[in-house]
Structure formats: structure tokens, C-alpha cells
Amino acid sequence: MGGQREKDDDGDAALLRAVAAGDTAALGTLYDRHAGWLHARLTRRCADPEVVREVVQDTFVTVWRSASGHRGEAAGGWLWTIAARRLVDALRAQERVTRLAGPPLEAGLPGGGGHGVTAPSAEERVLAGLEYGDVGAALDRISPELREVLRATVVDGLSTREAARLLGIPEGTVKSRARRARAELRAALDLLNPSPLGGTA
């Protein structure tokens, strides 16, 4: 089982080296291997199929441009990191449009599903918040090794095991750093917003 996983990882690494050298066929093979699960996983985070399709395409455009920057970590984790950040960009753009268009309840439901998709989900707000606004500013204040764990587990949506593989650290370290990261993040947010009611300066 582990041997098969390692073989797959080696195959992906070879494909990424070929992509970095400008091999479009290798990119196509990489796409065939990974686009399906990326699409499925992104769909769990975003209800708009058009956005999901664009994010998958953008992910592989990014892979084409930056394959030479792959540092040997598991290709699946690396691809998901790119895809999750492309999704954050898309959600951020959508949120700007929604703000300009008016209250979310007037934005109109794209028919179907019993889920309220007019407003961003809590997870989408967290994903977007980690990239801009007070949470993004607070994130910049915590130590880099804690920040990368928080990004892997919250922004990128990786499990503890996936984050451990991606970052090259034990699962127990991921858990302890995630706890410390949340505590530091809360403290940094308190510094940025000392009074929830907000007085005039």
C-alpha cells in the first residue's frame, strides 16, 4: 500500500520535472491523474460549478508556470495547495462583486438544492478572511512555522496526515502547532481589535 503511494509520488515528481521542461503531454497526464479528485474536493467547498471549473483550469495553468518551483513534496498536497488558493482568489472576487451588488439576500438563488447558497458559507468566509482583512493581518504576525500549519489545515483544507506529509513534519507536531497557531492568532486579533465596540481614535 505504502509502496504503491511512493510509486505514484515518484511518477508525479517525474511528470512535474517534465512539465518544468516544457512537456505539454506530461501536463495532460498530470491533469488526467488529478483533475477528477480536485474537482470533487473543490465542489464540496463551492456550490458554483463554473467557479470550480475555472479554479481547476487555473490550478493547472499555475502548475505549467511554476512546476520548476516544486520542491519534492507529495504532488497531491502541492496541487491542493494551489487549488485552494485559487479558490480563495475566486471567492474574494465574488465577495467584492456581491458587496457592490447589494445585500446577499437580493443576489438571487441559482435554482436548486435545499442549501442556502445566497451567502458565503462559514468555511468560505474563513478561507477568504485568512487572505485579507483583520485575520490576514493577524496571520502575518504569527511565527512562520505556525502560519504554514494553519494555512495547510484551514486554508488548504488538508487533514492532519496530509498536512504532515506536505510540510514534512510528524502528525503530532501538526496538531500541537495548530493549537499554538490558533492561540497566537486570537492574541494577534485582540491586538488588532482591542475593543469589539470600536471607539473613535
From TrEMBL:
Protein name: RNA polymerase sigma factor
Domain RNA polymerase sigma factor 70 region 4 type: 135-185
Keyword Transcription regulation: yes
Organism expressing this protein natively: Streptomyces pyxinicus
Superkingdom to which the source organism belongs: Bacteria
RNA polymerase sigma-70 region domain span: 30-96
The keyword Transcription regulation belongs to this UniProt entry's keyword annotation: yes
Keyword list, A-Z: Sigma factor, Transcription, Transcription regulation
Family named by the database record: Belongs to the sigma-70 factor family. ECF subfamily.
